[in-house]
Design goal:
alpha+beta, two-stranded antiparallel sheet, 3 helices, 8 strands, elongated
């Protein structure tokens, strides 16, 4: 029996529990469904400038009734508001560089949790990290696309 729904639920529970460190504090990620949802989440007033948004997984599988492999794709956005009029090349480069600390933290967390069994039954098939600029109403940072194999 294929456990698509069970696997998706387990992955969502894991993603919702993720935390990231910024300014010495542990912060929760926000789960999002669409670009409109991202904008509404980013518009919420919070005392932190760095935000992490995690998409609900997109799941697909292939194979036949005897053997199949499932894949769940997730996009994690690590973003900060653009500096607008205060922007210089150096300040923007510093901003992107600082955001990479959180990118490394999140990628390492996923890898460690797969290795130590927290995400038992999943493996990372592919990870792609892309720079993002002026997305969702003036935010910049990186998106991390992770393909989980189950």
């Amino acid at each position: 029996m294929k456990n698509r729904g069970k696997n998706i639920r387990r992955l969502i529970e894991y993603l919702r529990s993720m935390k990231y460190t910024h300014c010495g504090l542990a912060n929760d990620v926000a789960m999002v469904v669409s670009a409109d949802n991202c904008v509404s989440v980013l518009d919420r007033p919070l005392p932190i400038k760095r935000r992490v948004l995690v998409s609900y997984p997109v799941y697909n599988d292939g194979g036949n009734t005897d053997i199949y492999s499932g894949r769940a794709s997730v996009v994690i956005f690590v973003l900060e508001k653009t500096l607008a009029q205060q922007r210089t090349d150096a300040s923007e480069a510093d901003q992107f560089s600082g955001i990479l600390e959180t990118v490394d933290e999140l990628c390492s967390c996923i890898e460690n949790d797969i290795s130590n069994g927290v995400l038992c039954g999943f493996d990372v098939a592919n990870t792609q990290i892309n720079p993002e600029y002026s997305v969702f109403g003036g935010w910049l940072g990186y998106s991390i696309e992770v393909d989980f194999r189950s």
